[in-house]
Amino acid sequence: MVDQKTFDPYDMFKKFSDQWEKQANDFIKGSSNNPEFVSYSRLTSDTQARYLEFFKKNQEFFANQWNVPTKADLSNVAKLAIQTEEKLDSLEEQLWKLQDSVDSSNKEMESITEVSRDIIKLVKQLKKEQTISKKELEEVKQLKSNLQEVKSELAEIHSLKEEILILKELMGKNIDTKAKQEQNLAVTSK
Amino acid sequence: MATETLNNNTIPSFDFEKEMTRWNEFSNAINGPELSEGHTPRHAIWKKNKATLWHYPTVEKKYDVPVFIVYSLINRPTILDFAPGTSVIGGLVNSGYDVYLLDWGIAGYEDKDITLGDYVVDYIKKGVGRALRHSGADEVSVVGYCLGGTLAAMYAAIADEPIKNLVCAAVPIDYSVPAMPEKWAEGLKEGAFNIDRFIDVYGLIPPVYIEAMFRSITSPIYYSPYVTLLTRANDKRFVEKWRRMNQWTKGHVPLTGEAFRQISNDLMKENKLVKGEFTIRGNKVDLGKIKSNLLVVISKNDNLIPQGQSLPLMDLVSSEDKTHQLVEAGHASLALTGKLAGILNSWLCDRSNH
């Protein structure tokens, strides 16, 4: 008995309201779900539209007579403002495109500069190598001339050797002739 | 003696002060000034006509792919940043996503000729481009809620921008499944309602008609929220929540006539989006061209968008990674409770380059 819930009139009112609302909505939906309601709502909306058209035309007519701008005039002005905004937007977008292309060209330029730096480095290195090669070539030339000198000296030595050989032969012949002459002398003296 | 005790326990004593507070709170909640909106820090990065592209920077960025939210055309997107703790946008921002919201603003009479195609090409497409540029991201996740989901799907089908993920929550796609009473739907298809004339006269559909349309579909008699408020008027947190909810519910915005013409004629009457016959500036919108990862979020208790209107999107797209999720929620409570933030985060986290 102690756990008995306190009676709350608002709670009861809420339960009753929820139930009533649901039943009323179901009733409305049920009673309007027929072709008659559809054709009736068309009739009412058409009547409403006809009267609105009538008022609108009259309003436009009198506004024109009194030289007062209408809703349509104001909307035309607003449309001009919107068009200007759109043009500004498209200009901004074009500027972005331009900025993007400038950025990409800058990047390309940077890469070109880097490549040319590399090329300059390479050319410098090549120059160094060329001077080294020149020096080496001179040394080789020097070596060649030295070698030629050595060669000519060798050739001279070779001819000297031959002369010596000839001399040797001549001397050998002289010795033989002398020996023969001595033998002949000895034979004659005997 | 026992009866006396029972009566003492069950019949409440009349507390004059409590009742005064109750009725004061009730009166203030109904007649009081509007509450401040937008709780998550944000700044505008682009404005076009009445629309604003808001950026909600994340506190600690965890994901490379930003989230771009497209909301419905008929109501304010404040429901996505409803209250601290239950904010969808706040939840995403705190989870590490950069969030962009395309707020349509309030259309004026001069906007009466704006079509759904204009909204897709001039607003969503450009907005996504600007969000991508602003964030410096290579890809984007597009999230559409309600009619915003339909627009997001249309955009994803014609987009040149890199859309990594597409999320459509409570989205109407297949209008062959009616949300309204059967005979009304038949009447609409057979041209029993003269909507074109209505649009020609009004140009801009007033918010009061938008509200009446949705009330007639969901609940023509609508006073139970006021009874609930009266019952719980002493609960300050509830009253504040109720005021925010009421502010949003009553905050319908005008719909441009041409957009309404397309919704009623091309979508509701002829179901052109599903048939692949809907065109934007002369180009057919083929949902089969959607290849991004897709999540379709469906509320089980949605009176406005039945499951059958959202589900066909799963079969219409060409996405390899596609999934749908049924959530125990209503059309508005999906966002109101902040549930959507958790659902989005758990699906997007693996698909947003952590």
Automatic annotation (TrEMBL), chain A:
Query: What are the alphabetically sorted keywords of the record?
Result: Coiled coil
Which sequence ranges form a coiled-coil region, renumbered to this chain? 74-163
Q: Can you say what this protein is called?
A: Polyhydroxyalkanoate biosynthesis repressor PhaR
Organism field: Peribacillus butanolivorans
Per the UniProt record, the lineage of the source organism begins with:
Bacteria, Bacillati, Bacillota, Bacilli, Bacillales
